[in-house]
Design brief:
With 264 residues, the protein is mostly helical. It is built from 14 helices and no strands. It folds into 2 domains: 156 residues, no CATH class; 95 residues.
């Protein structure tokens, strides 16, 4: 069966999306709020994310693709939205899926002449002139891309809501989990339940985390962080303890921003 030479690369990228490559959309949106050039312009933020986040690979394929993605018309449901966190997921779904696969967000991009010229250069830039098996494959990619965009926004909005309701105990456990997932650092066999260890190390862990000055001072205590790192992680060298402690502080800083945004 014939396959475009770009198909395997596209399939790998789609699989990467399924494995969570776009799980950090919430952090990208928060950076937008900090960017003086884009802060306050939700429509510009939305277009930027489509072209530079979800279609970053495609945008770099050619100058024509860059022009296409830079000139996407933002959806009308963004009128009146102060941030991307104000998006209503049902409105987003309707916009992304359109009335058909051809009319969907990914369809309008990936069925364009610009896209077909860049990714199927050995064929005329017309969907109807592609071999049948390639047409089926491309339609699958379009559907998967649309689903990926919707899933990323759904996760972002769920995370944003959770950021406003998280207890300090849960936050600390989440930070430790994230460090383990990012570093694959082996975990120790704990001498007592994790909750008990966290409660005995930090103050008022059953309080709602609101990123207050008092909470941040306690959670950023270098001695306490290193203590909990040594208990939870199988680390022997001092430099490893310092490295994981720094990651703890970075993750805490990330959740401080997320919490502050969610509680506005």
């Amino acid at each position: 069966m014939f396959r475009s030479r770009f198909y395997n690369e596209s399939r790998v990228r789609i699989m990467a999306l399924k494995n969570g490559s776009y799980n950090n959309l919430i952090d990208v949106c928060l950076k937008m709020l900090e960017d003086p050039e884009r802060s306050g312009n939700v429509k510009e933020q939305f277009v930027w994310i489509i072209g530079n986040y979800f279609f970053e690979h495609e945008k770099s394929a050619s100058k024509n693709m860059e022009l296409l993605l830079n000139n996407i018309t933002p959806p009308p449901f963004l009128n009146g939205a102060e941030t991307l966190f104000d998006i209503k997921i049902e409105e987003l779904k309707s916009y992304v899926r359109g009335n058909s696969t051809n009319d969907s967000l990914a369809g309008r991009i990936m069925l364009s002449q610009q896209y077909l010229k860049a990714f199927y250069p050995h064929h005329a830039p017309s969907f109807s002139k592609l071999p049948e098996d390639v047409r089926f494959e491309l339609m699958d990619l379009i559907k998967e891309k649309n689903n990926t965009i919707i899933s990323a926004y759904e996760k972002m909005l769920v995370d944003h809501e959770a950021d406003a309701k998280r207890k300090t105990l849960t936050l600390i456990a989440l930070i430790l989990k994230n460090i383990h997932l990012k570093t694959a650092a082996p975990l120790n066999k704990l001498p007592k339940p994790a909750e008990e260890i966290i409660r005995s190390t930090f103050h008022n862990t059953d309080e709602l985390f609101i990123a207050s000055q008092k909470q941040m001072a306690d959670l950023m205590d270098d001695t306490k962080i290193k203590q909990i790192v040594k208990i939870f992680f199988m680390v022997k060298q001092f430099k490893d303890i310092i490295g994981i402690a720094e990651m703890f502080k970075e993750e805490l800083g990330r959740y401080r921003k997320r919490t502050s945004s969610a509680r506005r």
